[in-house]
Amino acid sequence: MIEDKNPQRTSISQLGEFGLIDHLTQQFEMAQPSTLKGIGDDAAVLDFKDKKVVVSTDLLVEGVHFDLAYMPLKHLGYKSVVVNVSDICAMNAKPTQITVSIAVSNRFPLEALEELFAGIALAAKEYGVDVIGGDTTSSQKGLLISITALGEADADELVYRNGAKANDLIVVTGDIGAAYMGLQVLEREKQVFQVNPNSQPDLDAYTYLIERQLKPEARKDVRTMLHALEIKPTGMIDISDGLSSEVIHLCKQSNTGCNIFEDKLPLDPQLIATCEEFNIDATTVAINGGEDYELLFTIGMDDFDKIKGNPNFTVIGHMTDPAEGIHLVTRAHTKIALKARGWNALNKE
Amino acid sequence: MIEDKNPQRTSISQLGEFGLIDHLTQQFEMAQPSTLKGIGDDAAVLDFKDKKVVVSTDLLVEGVHFDLAYMPLKHLGYKSVVVNVSDICAMNAKPTQITVSIAVSNRFPLEALEELFAGIALAAKEYGVDVIGGDTTSSQKGLLISITALGEADADELVYRNGAKANDLIVVTGDIGAAYMGLQVLEREKQVFQVNPNSQPDLDAYTYLIERQLKPEARKDVRTMLHALEIKPTGMIDISDGLSSEVIHLCKQSNTGCNIFEDKLPLDPQLIATCEEFNIDATTVAINGGEDYELLFTIGMDDFDKIKGNPNFTVIGHMTDPAEGIHLVTRAHTKIALKARGWNALNKE
């Protein structure tokens, strides 16, 4: 589809590697006080002074993590930054810098990479992170994006996965499951398009779901909100692989069990309607669907009053002694053991 | 070739993504004082105190940067770390941490990834860097390794590419060109093997060249040596793309010209002999061959006495006013303009 959309096509090899890097990175300005030197030397130079530094990295592979049939390159660039920034937010740290490496096959013209980098630049600006380095090379097949994100925080601000205690409340930001159903809608439209390329999709009923899939946002705002509410979570993780996987990570690393209540799960009305249309159980989607990039965290019971009624946060359950296991309590009051299904990129081949 | 060598093959998908990451990373111990938390949370946590932080990243792609027909996976793991550590050394900083992400097709069994990670672990130990994070996923084709390296230095220790002045001496560590000729020897053997799989290669005459290609080392020792000699380079870069490219980077960023003298280039006798056998000009190889991972740096004339006769360092030329251009002065005393040829991974497809 890319080929059709770009009447002008410039071969990447016309610029050469150095020319390409210069061309794609000249739009990046350094805004973080901690960035002393960005792109242009053997390494970037940073100064975090007395702050702790957090580092996270993610690899996105065409055909495994994204499908360019329905993922516009600008959106892909944006999302690839969000995915990494989300990990920094999940430490309760402030994202500050990213490096961006791409491997790309020669079917991509320069104009395609410009779109990708426009999305990267937009996200970098939106989240206030400096693009301080990267690598650009060819691939044997498809597009691959590797991003490393850095962030900073005071030592006493950082929140790990292993600090939750029995009786802590389990809280989720925003709503969950929508990104997964957005993907199902897009996959269906792709099938329809393959059968009849002239069909005009009517996606009005799914705009929220599709936006959650194509243009997710990292919850950079949660750090600020929690700070204002004078809450420090005891444990925190971002929801990239699905609620079930993330809850299990928190419980295992904190040595707790938990009860999650089905009737507390925050679901968008569009998600519920679309699950009915697709004849899929909305709870299953909310628990196992990934890529929402909401934050899942635990707080002491004493902090409940601070978030009660706050529309940004939903208490979905509580931690227990580890012997009680990790369960979903259904609307029918039965307990089902949660399993880590999530997104297993390694099983997709 | 991998398939033949591994009678035991465990499918990666048997472990799942989390199981695979646990399995491959359990061997990594944190040794750097600046590593507060390594693998196991949303992000690693580091504390560099009053040091500056340097960050560099590289992407290695099968079929573009390496060929598994002659590159053993353990060597590849080792080299992928070296390539990144070398960039940190080129800032005159001390390498401290790396993240390692890999994308791998399902033709690789678990045992192959174990070999790769054994090489990564060996290099991490050798260079004293902690493996603090990464990502593991499937690829549509082949193997891809993305590493980000971090290092630390005091602000006044850092050496950039842009500090060289006219009349500064240009110095190279070790010898150059051998890694490129090692590749030529391996490529020739691959051709022979394809014609006659039973042929027994006799590589005794090329051991140094092959080692330089398959198991290069980053010059972590140079920082210590220069410190002991009380020399601070004015500009520095590592030789990954070839001397010519790197000299041009230094000159352009420092706004200088230069004269490099052909008869000063440090060439190993095995390189000279093999170039004769292959009927290739050794100077061309020394100037355009990449992957030596030696350091190229400039020093003030006043520091010449400190390195005179030191077998680790060779003065190969001097910086000039920018108007004089960037030249190689041949043995016949003619001047040839240097061009950035280097390794252009984007032209290899």
TrEMBL record, chains A, B:
Ligand binding (Mg(2+) 4): 42, 56, 87
Coiled coil start-end: none
Keywords on record: ATP-binding, Kinase, Magnesium, Metal-binding, Nucleotide-binding, Thiamine biosynthesis, Transferase
Residues where Mg(2+) 2 binds: 58, 87
Binding site for Mg(2+) 1: 57-58, 135
EC number, UniProt record: 2.7.4.16
Residues given in the record as substrate binding sites: 65, 291, 343
UniProt-annotated binding residues for ATP: 134-135, 161, 240
Keyword Nucleotide-binding: yes
GO annotation, biological process: thiamine biosynthetic process; thiamine diphosphate biosynthetic process
Residues reported to bind Mg(2+) 3: 42, 87, 238
Binding site for Mg(2+) 5: 241
Transmembrane segments: none
Note: Reaction mechanism of ThiL seems to utilize a direct, inline transfer of the gamma-phosphate of ATP to TMP rather than a phosphorylated enzyme intermediate.
Physiological role: Catalyzes the ATP-dependent phosphorylation of thiamine-monophosphate (TMP) to form thiamine-pyrophosphate (TPP), the active form of vitamin B1.
Family (UniProt): Belongs to the thiamine-monophosphate kinase family.
HAMAP family registered for this protein in UniProt: TMP_kinase (MF_02128)
Protein name, UniProt field: Thiamine-monophosphate kinase
Origin species: Flavobacterium caeni
